[in-house]
Amino acid sequence: MRDLTVGEAGNGHQPSASRRPRLDKIELHPWMRAQTMEDCYLYWMPVHGFPLDRSESTWLVEFMDRFSRALAEEYNLRAEIFLQFRTASNEVSDSFRAYSMKCKTLLGLGRKPGADLPSIPTKEELEELAKDGKSLDPSQWVGDYCYWFRTKRPEEQRRRFLGYGGMTTLFLPPDPKTTPPRFPFTPRFRAAVPAFSLYDIDGLIQGAFSLKDDFLQKSKSLFGAGLEDKPEYSAIMYIIPLLASGHFFAVSADERSRWFQLFDVYLNESPNDRGVLLAFQKNYEPLLIETLRGMQADGLLYPHLTAERR
Description:
Blueprint: E1 32-33, E2 41-46, H1 54-75, E3 78-84, H2 85-89, H3 93-100, E4 105-111, H4 123-132, E5 145-149, H5 154-161, E6 167-172, H6 187-192, H7 195-198, H8 201-209, H9 215-223, E7 239-241, H10 245-250, H11 253-259, E8 265-270, E9 275-280, H12 285-297, H13 303-309
Parallel strand pairs: 4-7
Antiparallel strand pairs: 1-2, 2-9, 3-5, 3-6, 4-5, 6-8, 8-9
Helix pairs in contact: 1-5, 1-12
């Protein structure tokens, strides 16, 4: 298993090899922990590339299912899943369009630390591109928008969209305002009303109440600094961080602590790191180890580790 070379650090450029911090290995295969990061727990898991191959994807989905259940049972944390707009529009466009017909989503912004929203090109800039014979790439003028799955089907959403390099999962404490009241929908009533067989009524109700979540405004306060004067800012419902390993090493411990005011656990597919990042500030490592031991006991070894042992 190779050592991590850190990905982008917020400016879109790779740090030189001599300045790359190293994530040392410990017995948390396939995760490797950044031993020099003392104020939080940062891990990296290697992949061959994105999209993941089937064996990697199968292992990661199973790990996420088990770790999510453990965090919910032991610490009452909930998994909120976000899919980058570019991933939804390109790698999984057909699947996402079909799925979004029955699953409520909400568009927001994913932001690398310090990144600005792209400006609309001027007429002169467009004319210059045309003069130079350069092709126009509209994506360079679109921010890193993402979809939040308001309908809570995390296992299903992972199986559909995890592994393409664009999924971020935040584990948050519960927010009582997002819990719908108990409606008197008896099994007999549900069977008698056609709408219950045609639509996910429970999911629609849950999706509506999710709009009361405190995380929406809190995320803008924590990760929207510098964007307040942008015309798009008022229409952005939430802002989540898109973090590569380099971002963790590039900021102070105080800044990292600010990030964890929004979430307890952070998991992000990071193409720049050619892997998956996992981070938390509180000590959830025993639960992580317990989850990995359970998978190993069930014969569910990560393909990199399996190949090394042959």
